[in-house]
Write a structure and sequence with these properties.
The chain is an alpha+beta fold. The protein is 31% helix and 24% strand. It has six helices and 13 strands. The chain is elongated and about 95 Å long.
Length: 300
């Protein structure tokens, strides 16, 4: 009867094999996940802000003004800059025309953003929530919303020409890019009716309900020039050495595309249904590998 194996007693050999198998079976395993990668990036960002402050423009967030420069380098225009950086009390509301947007230089999830249409010298229609504001109410609303959000500064605002003309909401295209590749496209329309949304694959196939608690708005129509949106998003993503970057774009009435903003840490719910979450997580990690193989400094 064999009493040893490679000089090890059989009983000890089986105990060692059992311990190795138990370790493999019970050790934690985390599948690739877009949501998990987002959460890790967010923790790093909060730690850096705590150490250095948001104004340092440290990884991994871009300000609105920084994003405009990235778009310009990629050959993608931004809405006309009307003012900024500027504080709330210094806003010149009588000089910005009939349709304009005021937003914090830093921030996410449209917090502290006002999309305004001028109805008279002293009355403005807020396109997102459908209410009318006087000049003093515009100031107090910005102060309140930015302070509540905990992001951005009331002394660091940007004023841009609005893509919503005449108080009519416009479509915003949020493209999830992975260093030269597109993972999905989200269509948003914000108005007093609430948030209307639809999500597409890179081939512009409707993906249905990718969020568990957000309904699809089937009445939203695809873009007039989808190829231009894709080209702009890819060109911009190649300017930033990171595996994931969300590029927010608008279509213009003349068929062009302009940059809304760049988001390294998008706000809102970042968890898509399971299969899509894993697919996008793999795209993020694959993009990181491509960047490292090209010898580029990586924003993880």
């Amino acid at each position: 009867m064999v009493s040893s194996f490679r000089g090890i007693p059989i009983s000890r050999h089986f105990r060692l094999q059992y311990k190795a198998a138990k370790y493999r079976w019970t050790r934690p395993y985390h599948p690739v996940s877009l949501f998990a990668l987002h959460e890790t990036r967010k923790k790093r960002w909060h730690a850096l802000v705590a150490l250095h402050g948001i104004e340092e423009e440290l990884f991994p967030e871009f300000s609105k003004l920084s994003g405009r420069k990235v778009g310009e380098a990629a050959g993608v225009a931004s809405p006309r800059l009307l003012d900024g950086p500027i504080g709330v009390t210094d806003l010149r509301l009588d000089e910005y025309g009939d349709d304009f947007v005021i937003k914090p230089n830093w921030g996410t999830s449209s917090r502290g953003v006002l999309v305004l249409h001028r109805e008279s010298d002293s009355v403005f229609f807020s396109v997102i929530d459908g209410i009318r504001l006087g000049i003093d109410e515009v100031h107090s609303r910005l102060l309140r919303d930015i302070q509540r959000s905990g992001r951005g500064s009331t002394d660091d605002l940007v004023v841009e020409e609005s893509m919503s003309v005449g108080g009519i909401p416009t479509q915003e295209w949020k493209v999830s890019t992975f260093y030269g590749q597109v993972g999905l496209i989200q269509q948003f329309e914000r108005s007093e009716k609430g948030l209307l949304t639809k999500t597409y694959s890179p081939e512009w196939v409707d993906l249905g309900e990718v969020y568990r608690r957000r309904k699809v708005t089937q009445t939203l129509v695809p873009p007039a020039a989808p190829e231009k949106l894709m080209e702009a998003a890819i060109a911009i993503s190649l300017q930033v050495p990171t595996g994931f970057l969300r590029v927010d774009l608008y279509e213009t009435p003349d068929g062009g595309v302009v940059l809304g903003e760049l988001c390294l840490i998008p706000g809102g719910d970042r968890y898509f249904r399971g299969g899509l979450d894993k697919k996008l997580g793999r795209m993020w990690e694959d993009a990181n590998v491509r960047l490292l193989s090209d010898g580029k400094t990586l924003i993880p």
